[in-house]
Amino acid sequence: MNESLRVLEVVQSLERGGRTVRFITTVEGLQENGVFVLPVSFKAAKLESCQPEGLVVLNTKAFDGPCIMYNLIKLIRKHRINLIHCHCDRSMIWAGFAAKICGVPTVLTFHRSILRYYQRNKVNRLLMRLTSRFIAVSEQRRQLLISNLGLSEQRCLANHGGIDTQIEHVGFARARQQLDLPSDQIVLFSAGHLGRIKGHQDTLKAFKQISDKYNCQLYIAGSGSAKDTQVIQRYRDKMGLQEQVHFLGQISNSSLWMEAADIFVQPSLEEAFGLVFIEAGLHHTPVVATNVGGIPDIIVNGETGYLVPAANPEALEQALVKLIESSQLRDQFGAAAKQRIESKFNKQHMIDKYLNTFHQLIMEE
Could you give the angle at which helices 226-238 and 200-211 cross, rounded to 10 degrees? Predict the structure, then answer.
């Protein structure tokens, strides 16, 4: 049955991050289930790890919309595409016009974290005309799309992110050894864009109080604009944490860091879903995060980690201290997190939901 599907997977660009991971996972997962998939990006990936096999890059000058649309129409007709799936609103606009011309249904997975993108505006009104089904990455974001844009329950669905849970675990001791980290030190790890939305300043405020009392270090992976990087590094230096807080930049071994960490911490101010929290749980690492967006879909407060209010470094500090002071609690939360991720957030669950949506749309056509 899946062999009848011929899907164009479209994304605007392929920077490191949750959207790119989901794009690649979706492409590979559909292919593993017998679907013909043609992945398309409007920009070339800067890193090979961010590029799925067989990627078509539409090299156009300055995002020339009509040219993009023309090239998409050619691809749709050449490969007999019968469904288009986009992973960002901008790619959906030109892919949506191409789909209308070719008579092909469309699906848009809406990844945006910032709340202003969920308001009724000219772009979203256009998307509502061009999109057959909206996919939200969490139930909370689904409700935002339904209430703010007036979408019907049937037209807007939730499909959580999923990852490959069948991975080889290095183990805590070996990971520490490979990263040259002391075995007797509490390691806090965070990974995400260095911009304000990830709450790194709140982490530093909380960590300042903690580092005076406990033998711990904080490692932050990720990149940002030159301004974002400068702001957060200056903030660390102003707080006198140069010896305890380390910025790793973009890393390719985040799984190893997850294995080596005692606690994963990321107090995002907003988060549509948060694939990084799934990755932490899979590696048996308890999480301290915020009770915003799709994060509560992943983390069960008091069972797999702690959820605190956003922009509240005092509450963040209290939650971190509970885990720092109890290795038994860290092990308990970590084991529960791993079990939850393996049962509810594996890749095949996500792919099955997409397949059900795709088949239903084609039947309706």
Answer: 20
At 137-180, the pLDDT tens digits run: 999 999 999 999 999 999 999 999 999 999 889 999 999 999 99
| pLDDT (tens digit per residue) in 221-230 | 999 999 999 9
Domains along the sequence of the chain with CATH: 2-162+346-364 (3.40.50.2000), 172-344 (3.40.50.2000)
* Predicted model pTM: 0.92
Distance CA 131, CA 358 (A): 13
Judged by phi (left if over 0) then psi (alpha if -120 to 50, else beta), residue 167 lies in beta
Backbone angles phi, psi at 287, to 5 degrees: -120, 140
DSSP string computed for 301-361: BTTTEEEE-TT-HHHHHHHHHHHHT-HHHHHHHHHHHHHHHHHHSBHHHHHHHHHHHHHHH
